[in-house]
Amino acid sequence: MTSAAPHGRRDTFAGALLVALFAVVFLWRPICEYGDGVFTPADFSRAYPLTRLPDAVGDPIAPNNPALISAWATSQSSLILSQRGLLHGELPAWNGFAGGGVPHLANPHTAVFSPFSWSFYVLDFGLAALITAFAKLFVVGFATFLFLRERRLTFAAALVGALTFMFAGHQVTTLFLPQSGTVFVLPAALYFVERIAREVERSIQAAREGLSRPRVLLRPAIGLALVLALGFFGGAIDTFIFCVATVCAYTVLRIGNILLRERGQAAAQRAVLAGLAHCACAAAAAVLISAIQALPYLEYMRNARGVGAPLAELAFPPWPLLVFPDLLGNPVTETALGLGVHSTSHANLAGAYVGALALFLAVFGCALARGSRTTWFFAGLAVLGLCLGFGVFGTLGLQALLPAQETPLVQRAQCLFALAIAVLAAVGVDRATSAGAVSTRVQALSLFIGAALAICFARAMGARVLTNALLDPAAGGDTALRELAAGAHMDLVLAVFVVGAGLFALVCALERSRVRAWLVLGLCAAVYAQSGGLFEHYNTVTPAREVYPRTPDINRRDGTVGIRAPIVLGDVDVPPMTSAVYGLRSFGVNDPLRVRRYDQLQQKLFAPSGEFSLVSNATRHGLRVFGIESVFDGDGWVDIDTAFGHLPLKRSTWGETDPVLPGAGVAQYFRTTVDGLQGVHFFWVTRGVPNAHDLSVTIDDLDTGTRHVGIVFAAGSIRPDGRAIVPCIVPFPAAAKVNGHALLLRITTTNAVPPQAAFAVGRRTDLDNVTTGWRATQGDSVLAGQLALDLHYALDAFELQDTVGPFRLYRFKGATKRFRTVGSASVVANDAESWARVLDASFDPATEVILEAAPQEWARTGAAADEEDARVEVLDDLNGHVRLVVKRKSPGFVVTPIAWFPGWKAKVNNREAQPLCADYAFTAVAVPEGESLVELEFQPKSLRNGIVLTLVGLLLLLIAFAYTLPSPPDEVCA
Fold this sequence. Notes:
This protein is of the alpha+beta class and about 950 residues long. About 40% of the residues lie in helices and about 15% in strands.
């Protein structure tokens, strides 16, 4: 690369000022609207019924920025939970609002110690969001500028590279997520490695001249250690691993080049070894400093299992979207994506976007500096970043091996690609503005024409991709409007590129002058316009009233449920992590790492699915084991002890029969496997109008000839209220003995005539061969699949208590308490025996507890009379701290819903007690007869050891820094 003069303080200050200026330009709208709105995608609360405020006239319900749901549902919620703990003088080690609880501090995604989280702990949320967004952009851009200047690139080239990286898609689209708080480690660490390499070169030169340079490597090594530690605290472990691997590779290449250049010289070898030793010591110091979170994280890894889903490869070569990011629509607003590109993949492609102008400058840089090993390093890094991001050449399997929270999506690896393009683009500007690089105006004109032809070719290919997408019958919507919008988008990108390429050509053709300086500034503005300028819509300003609103429905839910953790059937009411903001207990767990035992038992007994652990199927036994007392139901069908669990209302998962006509009724043959059937559930397809004719529903036992159900729905009785799908629940006599019997459900009409036929019935084609002997017909025709039919065996176990928003709150009549005391205990030797006993239907969690690996003398059988007056009073049930008063006539146990996890300490009447693994996944404590005060505190040894190591690391850095200070002058005695 160019050997320009070293940069001075004036250049550094000017670079910082310009980087800050462009960050302010990007944030100008939220700055202007501060006070009226908050720079955060918290308007996603409008997608959830209990957090949805009453709508203004004409105000749509849909959120403005659904692509950034993770910011509202996880990242910012974690910040608020951390803030509450720190304000009370405690490290937020445990989150008790998700399931049976999960370690909070041990999950790096919470970013408790990230420097970009600190503002949320001391400032108003809206101001903190603005300051954090500015800080993330500025630090990434300024660190890139410093690295490029340390590489001796010109001021203009370093500024272009800084803007390219700080406004690349990976940074802008994840501005509210931990990834953007971690990527700064890449340019910042490279800057300090480059400084160490420069000092090694100066030491070699000094050795040749017989001079010494003591302690010159310590300060950049200290900076490297701090950067690595703070990068780990940033929260995105996947991104951090990629960054550290890149820094290590660059360190070996950079310092190895020095050794190759100075081969055979002992002084050079000593200097190189000293440089590598300082880098290694910096890494070791970073490990020590990060131990306060790293040790709990490693413990969490040993006791958890990941649930991240792998990323599927994209269905077509995505490169046109790397030039025109909104070519197929925008997932932030309304979108119509084709060619197998769903909204998540679109956001991932946006994460890899750097702009066509930056790509052009990078290609130019590769061409002019192709003889440099560093150029080849960053060119290879760009290729590697694309492969990692899009899962090509088998890299998805490589990513799955990483010890990270989940299989990384494209944003977690695209910082490599973006930085490589930024560095190469800076090299292109540096070489082009150097003497002799582009010596004539003809060459500059040729450069401009070539760039224009390249972007025109890209536009033609983009138009072809757009045409194919618009021909996709699944796209739907207004095709002409989408084509017009996409065409305008491509023309805008094309115009900005042509202007930028023209400015670059003029910069190359002109000699150094004030005009040339202004042209360079215009080139920087063009680079910004093609990146940050296009992606401002990813980061919205939300009205202040919608930022985690405390709605009447939320207050009502809190008052009716209290400290209990209800399960939610149907659409989730509040995501599990966000529920912590409102102080609500959630049965679900929204975390890519989950406590292993609790998650295994929850999966077995409730089969949760979806991003927020929606309960798809459950049993009364599962409710009793988990101590669930309340059930929130969103569709009037309590999916507990049912045949299939939740039947989705999405029309994409099922179709419909033909309309019911006389002689063409719909029938479903089915068999039951146990007695106790209490209800049958199916869907009317109403098309939004009431039934105009009578509809008869009968259920007959074909084995005995008994008619168990005979109901007639009179004309007008089925009211769709604007809905196209209406559930129909038919009660069944629970006393009927139908185990193994063949039953026939018929849906008929007698007074309907074409074309005014009766309703159609919902039908699922994905249930073929699921159940033996089931068969659906209409008239004389056998239907593909089955009716969307569900069977219920526990309707009478639930009592309606209240209605909260769109949910019905049911009390489970046979519930066990969330905190309960029992007198009987069985002791088992290992987890396999505990698992089998808990799943056994004969196990009654209300009267017995299964203890694993406990002393055998604790096994006992309690007397029924001793349990009559036994009770548990909850004094405190906070995150990581529980206090209970237990009253018993005889010794027994108190069973808590806390997930079994290392680090819990117990006290009974102020004396140390041993926490016990109870019912495979929970925690129990032995209590004596009489009244006892039971206290549980989460105090993991990993956290205590981590605090000690972190303090040691900081102390060592402080000593090292003091060692670099100049020695005071010797005093001269008179």
